[in-house]
């Protein structure tokens, strides 16, 4: 899936960049905090961020990972409500802080439609993940998340697709709605099938088609 910035025309990209200020965040640094007032939107230029929210029990639940070209925080900018999630850099991030994003959309109707489509895609994706939690086992959910990350951020290399995993195993477990132990078992099962090899925060997908088939199993 192409992130929003990649869908803009060169003129729209120039206009959007002109409205922002470049900022950087170190790995682990918080970009937005859930509940804070919304005053600006992030356009990710490099690096990746995780989006998470606190559950009623206080557990931090990972909702998504976003990378270069993604716009983050746009919903709160549009409706004026407090931040619905916390955004954290999971690797060094460079981004554009855009304060008048709503004004940009008012002046660029085509982009406003693209934002509507992006929000709709994310809502559909959230619905699919909720269904996954109820009907799919941990191994299938882990395969789904690896496919998602590989399709967005994977690098084709001899022997497969190399993926720098931006999440710890605890964070990956939170994202798939399972325990760290179950995620470890799922990764071991994928390795035993010859689908992946794992290293420290890196996964080599040896058989992308096989991993996709595993992700579709129920």
From TrEMBL:
Residue stretches making up the HTH crp-type domain: 136-209
Protein name as it appears in the record: Crp/Fnr family transcriptional regulator
Pfam family, one: cNMP_binding
SMART domains: cNMP (SM00100), HTH_CRP (SM00419)
PROSITE patterns: CNMP_BINDING_3, HTH_CRP_2
Any Gene Ontology CC annotation: cytosol
GO MF term list: DNA binding; DNA-binding transcription factor activity
Domain of life, source organism: Bacteria
Domain Cyclic nucleotide-binding per the UniProt entry, residue ranges: 4-98
Assigned keywords, A-Z: DNA-binding, Transcription, Transcription regulation
PANTHER family: CRP FAMILY TRANSCRIPTIONAL REGULATORY PROTEIN (PTHR24567), HTH-TYPE TRANSCRIPTIONAL REGULATOR ARCR (PTHR24567:SF74)
